[in-house]
Amino acid sequence: MTERKISIAGIPVLAAVILLAVSYGSVRIPLPDIISILIGHGEGLPETWKLILWKIRIPRTLAAALVGGVLATGGVSTQGLFRNPLSEPYLLGISSGAALGATIAIVAAPSFGSGAGLGVIGTAAFLGAMIVTFTVFIAAGKGAFKLPSTLLLSGIAIAFLCQAVIWLIMTYNRDQVERITFWTLGSLSSAGWSKVIWLTAITIPSTIVLASMGRVIDVLSTGYDSAHGLGVRPQRSAAVILAFTALGTAAAVAVSGSIGFIGLMVPHAVRLLGGPSHRKLVIRSWFGGAILLVLADLTARTINPPGEIPVGIVTALLGAPFLLILARGKKGEGRLDG
Amino acid sequence: MFSYRKSFSLLLVVFLLTTLIAVLPVFARGSDDTGFQGAVITLKDHFDREITLESAAMTLVSLSPGITETVFALGYGNRLLGRTDYCDYPPEAASVPSVGSLTEPDIETIVAMNPDIVIASTHFPKEAMDRLVAAGENVAVLMGQDSFQGAYDGVIRPVALILGDIDAGEVLIASMEATVDKALAVVAGFSRTPSVYYVVGFGEGGDWTAGGDTFISEMIDTAGGKNIAEDISGWSFSLEAIVDGDPDLILLPGWAEPIFKTAPVYSDLRAVKEGHTIAIDENAIVRQGPRLAEGFAGLVEAIGSVN
Amino acid sequence: MVKNAVALKQVTWRPLHGSFEFGPVSVVAESGKFIALVGPNGAGKSTLLNLVSGILSSREGEIEISGKPMKERSSRERGRLMAFLSQDPERPFGFPVSEYIGLGRFPHVGPFRNLGKKDRSIVDAEINAWGLSSLRNRSVTGLSGGEFQRVRLARALAQEPRILLLDEPGNHLDLSSRTGILNRLKQEAQSGRCVIAVLHDVNDALLYADQVWLVAEGRLLHTGTPIDVLEPVRLAEIYGVELVPFNSQDGLMMLGVPSCQ
User: Fold this and answer.
1) ipTM of the prediction
2) What does the pLDDT look like over A141-155, one tens digit per residue?
3) pLDDT classification of B30: cutoffs 50, 70, 90
């Protein structure tokens, strides 16, 4: 019964957290005024406040929710598919591919590309992510969907390769090193409405597909032969799951850089609260990831106003102790499986 | 007979010996140009190092754009053997061969050029300095305080001294002071103090500006404007703060202007809508050198346009 | 109930790499029979089982499941008809026993529906039948080898399959667990299911199986009742080990290896 409560609680909690995030920023706007602007009764209030609310805070917070949600669902599907509690979607080479694409864009087009849609850097990052992920699948060969470890190894190898190329590019472009590093650390500072629309178009369908395949992920996690015996087609299903995971994650990384730990942490946290069945795990993790990233982003931009620290730092600082607590288990005996 | 203790002690001894050997050079003082009788030019650089030259430097390598500009402005560009990739002004500087970047100058090239002196300024890494000194080169690091006086006393005067032409330095400084005075007079006639936002960086990399503790902010203030970021220290700002600050005027580097004016949210700023964005040459403001005065004058002109 | 639960007609197979040739094999497995697949290592027993389950596709020949060719059955249908227990089990982390067994209902429930009352009662029945009530909420990763094997069998039976395919179900288990499993499998066969199990121990085959299929070097050498097929001389040839038969009071034959001299 607690399980059902947790599922339903997701929506109001997320809504509350979004309202909270939208109420705070480097500029102080009192809450009653925020609410008036939101419901449309904002006459007499400064235009700049409306601009800040509608064009900066709201799209950014929504982007945070969408990115956090899809990263968490990516964590669920990769952990289930690879049967590895340490998996996260970046293992498929997505974040290295995106970083490589972004690096090339930053170096080739030094002017800040915050244009319509994704912008130059975002588009390059998305393309980079998809191309590298595709390469990972091809490089893994025929065994890509037969054995999870094949794909993981391929992903790790190609990630190292991408990283080497990135370092090489950095060596010959010292003046852009800072920009490249900041992008990699992850930040939502450039998230506007066009990015929100783009994110919604890609990550919501991806999450819905993954949620509907939740039980299939359960079955696959018992082993491919066993899954076959239960009437699932393991390779085909794995391919579909991974493809949608890659798509959603690539979209997220293209907008926000590689924000770490969410894909790893959130599924475990949600499992602790409500059990491992993937069907519900996917949706719950989406909410968990969305809530977490909205709060992390809020922290990142209000902790040192008017400056911002990259949100990837906040998630890492949260994630590391959490993971340790998880690993030690309830009585310090060590377990990672709830 | 193999003994853990013996082999471990041997390892320890080897380790200590190698450490000692690696550390020794620190204790050896490189023979420098000390004690030249009758040294004509002596000065202390920014790090209080004594620089001595037998006579005026006839050949030099500049490791800073500000220094390069100063040398040319004083009329001695022909004495430059080498410059950095970033030394892009005046146009004549292009004909001087480059010795690498600001932070990674090519030591071998510089040594092969055999200049009388190497002059560096900001961003000069200590590593490069040590290597040049070890190779027997004269190195002076010239920087001034972040102010006009700092540019005069910390950069222009010492460079003129090194070149053996103090007068040229005074002439340059006088002309700079005149420009500044003229600009200040214009400021005195301003009817109001417009709010200004100075763009260092914007967009996906975050918003960067000149905080209240920077020289740029001071200059904006002196030029008759009010920097909306004057309450912050450092360079980190946020888009929200820009919107809230609602500046009357936005100053940007030239390459940024077209992108800024069409970028989402930035294009909604009142200053952009009213057409009050002005591209300025940030190098004239940021580099400690001869163009500081005209950079300041440019600021005054820009601020005057919204007056 | 179709008489021939499984039928293989001239089935051959070979791997992508290597020279192992399997088949041609033609044989039928009747419903209500417990069939033991026996033979030395690498003989092709697992291959045969994998071909029947559909994990491997035959190169030539046809495989019929419950009267219809395998190719004409969708994977969901297959899952409803056949349950497969592989040799090396994977343990998903974070799964409690009851949920794991519940996965057995997947072919019937599908990816979207919740488990209904009927499904839950089937799962509960299996939990009780295998003595797993005290382990309901334990994570499968924390179970012993024997406990997990029982859980897997419970899951397989929760599928309500007409055909049970098991690859060495007694692996890693002590005598009492193995005996319990083999007894249960015999019961399942008697109630109409077709059970095909790879058994390592020929004695188990002698005691429990209705039929024995003797596999060696990729060919089906012999099929028939255990006593017919498991002749000491024939086995000695195949295994390269001398065997001695003896009778117990029940009249069953047990083959033992003579002691070292």
Assistant:
1) 0.85
2) 776 677 777 888 888
3) very low
B150 and B297 fall within a common domain:
no
For tokens 């429990």, the residue is: C208
Q: Domain tally for chain B?
A: 2
Residue of A nearest to C164 (CA): A229
Q: Which two tokens stand for residue B202?
A: 């914007």
Residue ranges of chain A with pLDDT lower than 50? 1, 113-116, 332-338
| CB nearest to A190's CB, from B203, B256, B268 | B203
Mean pLDDT of C5-15: 88
The two structure tokens encoding residue A91: 């293992």
**Cβ–Cβ contact C56 with A under 8 A:** no
Phi, psi of C154 (to 5 degrees): -60, -45
CATH number at residue B232: 3.40.50.1980
Q: Is the pLDDT of residue C221 over 50?
A: yes
Among all chains, which residue has been given the structure tokens 């499941």?
Answer: C65
How far is residue C248's CA from residue C242's CA, in Å, rounded to a whole number? 19
Pairwise CB contact (< 8 Å): C86 & A229: yes
* pTM, entire model: 0.81
By C-alpha distance, the chain B residue nearest A173 is B101
The range of the structural domain enclosing residue B151 comes to 10-176
Q: Which residue has the higher pLDDT, C121 or A276?
A: C121
Question: Distance (Å, rounded) from C-alpha A52 to C-alpha B231?
Answer: 20
Same-domain pairing of B41 and B119: yes
Interface residues on B facing A, Cβ-Cβ cutoff 8 A? 101, 103-104, 201-207, 232, 234, 236-241, 243-244, 246, 255-256, 259, 262-266, 268
Q: What pLDDT shows up at residue C260?
A: 60
Kindly tell me the burial class for residue C76, based on how many C-beta atoms sit within 10 Å of its own C-beta (0-12, 13-18, 19 or more). middle
